[in-house]
Design a protein that fits this description.
Layout (H helix, E strand, L loop, with lengths): L3 H24 L6 E2 H4 E3 L5 E10 L11 H13 L15 E9 L8 E8 L10 E8 L5 E8 L5 E4 L4 E4 L4 E10 L12 E6 L4 H15 L4 E3 L4 E5 L8 H10 L1 E2 L6 E5 L4 E4 L4 E2 L2 E3 L4 E7 L2 E3 L10 E3 L2 E7 L5 E3 L5 H11 L3 H13 L3 E2 L1 E4 L1
Parallel strand pairs: 15-25
Antiparallel strand pairs: 1-14, 2-11, 3-4, 3-6, 4-5, 5-10, 6-7, 7-10, 8-9, 11-13, 12-13, 15-16, 17-24, 18-23, 19-22, 20-21
């Protein structure tokens, strides 16, 4: 009996299983791991804000009033450049509105690319619906024009009014130009000419910076990354990737690390919102929560005289007083208690979000909260 073919097939299946297992192990990431792409940015690769002043025309009587002097002056100046001389005082701007136009110039945007722009009314225009933005240069902080915007304004809302009623949806005095701005100037940034890169963490942390550095060095088997502080990591471009920085950055962005954060409890007293991180711990402490509710209800008793009698109406006050006091017991939380135990214990006491705020403030005052308490 020949068993060599069967043994050969078994060995092949074993090799395939081992290969798949190795791939799964290499691709597996620890719990809570995120991509470096999501927690860090490359220094110099960012958007640039653009702003410009323009006019929206074609409005149905919902433009600026005469009180907006700058609107009539802008119309007169525009017409003068087109060979028409008018007196600004003779103009009516009901169909025109002065607006500010803003846009974000993305990194590596090339000449001729189309970007969105946001149009916002400056004067007392009531509605920009149906209007058209005239050619508006958009400048950056250095004073240079990087884009030009023009086109129909999409408000995403409406407004209508009559003699006794008004209806409005969203904000019709703000609109958007979908791909309504054209890039005219590029921001010079030669990525491939660099021999070093700088990673900036969005949330600076020494532990996170160390983990990112270890992950990058482990990928290339070479100490090309160095953490200079809690939020900055310097990268030396390997010789193999000189002139091909895009592939290097793509490999680094795919790496996954587990970011570390400071234990923090964030409280919003206006809305009663409480947000707690996973690293929040408390020392041994006993918590008691009880509500004292006092309800006073006045029920005046009115006694009226008979008709055509000389009697008087008599009002006798009657007061009902009710007192309810909570009977919750003390809850003991041991040292090192996790956030899950804290939440379960406080839920057992039946506390509301606003009561939870007061409890955490008291725990912090007692020195038992091992976390930052931030009130916003």
């Amino acid at each position: 009996m020949n068993t060599k073919p069967e043994r050969h097939d078994w060995m092949e299946r074993l090799r395939m299983f081992v290969a798949v297992l190795v791939v799964l192990v290499l691709q597996a990431a620890p719990a809570g791991a995120v991509r470096i792409k999501d927690i860090a940015n490359i220094k110099g690769v960012r958007t640039n804000q653009l702003v410009g002043y323009g006019l929206v025309v074609g409005l149905d009587g919902t433009g600026d009033d005469k009180k907006s002097v700058f609107t009539t002056q802008s119309i007169a100046s525009m017409l003068e450049k087109m060979g028409v001389t008018v007196n600004p005082k003779d103009l009516k701007a009901k169909n025109v509105a002065a607006v500010m136009v803003t846009a974000d110039l993305p990194p590596f945007a090339r000449t001729g690319a189309r970007i969105d722009a946001l149009v916002s009314s400056m004067g007392d225009a009531k509605n920009l619906q149906g209007g058209t933005l005239l050619m508006t240069p958009l400048k950056a902080a250095d004073g240079n024009v990087y884009a030009v915007a023009q086109g129909p304004v999409n408000t995403g809302g409406f407004a209508a009014e009559g003699a006794g009623a008004t209806v409005r949806k969203n904000f019709p005095t703000v609109g958007r130009l979908i791909e309504g701005a054209t890039v005219e100037r590029e921001v010079n940034f030669d990525l491939n000419a660099r021999n070093a890169l700088t990673l900036s963490l969005q949330q600076p942390d020494f532990t996170t910076a160390s983990r990112v550095t270890d992950a990058i060095n482990g990928l290339f088997y070479d100490p090309i990354a160095t953490a200079t502080d809690a939020g900055t990591i310097q990268l030396q471009v390997p010789m193999a990737y000189t002139g091909n920085i895009v592939e290097l950055v793509a490999m680094i962005e795919k790496l996954e690390v587990t970011p570390d954060n400071t234990a923090r409890v964030v409280i919003n007293e206006r809305t009663g919102t409480v947000v707690m991180g996973d690293n929040v711990r408390i020392s041994t402490i006993a918590i008691a929560h009880g509500n004292l509710s006092i309800v006073v209800k006045e029920s005046p008793q009115v006694s009226q005289p008979l008709p055509f009698s000389e009697g008087q109406t008599v009002v006798t006050p009657e007061t009902n007083l009710t007192v309810n006091e909570g009977k919750d017991q003390l809850v003991l939380l041991k040292s090192g208690t996790s956030i899950g135990d804290v939440v379960n214990a406080l839920n057992a006491l039946g506390v509301s979000p606003r009561d939870l705020i007061a409890i955490f403030q008291a725990i912090k005052a007692a020195g038992a909260l091992q976390a930052d308490l931030e009130v916003i």
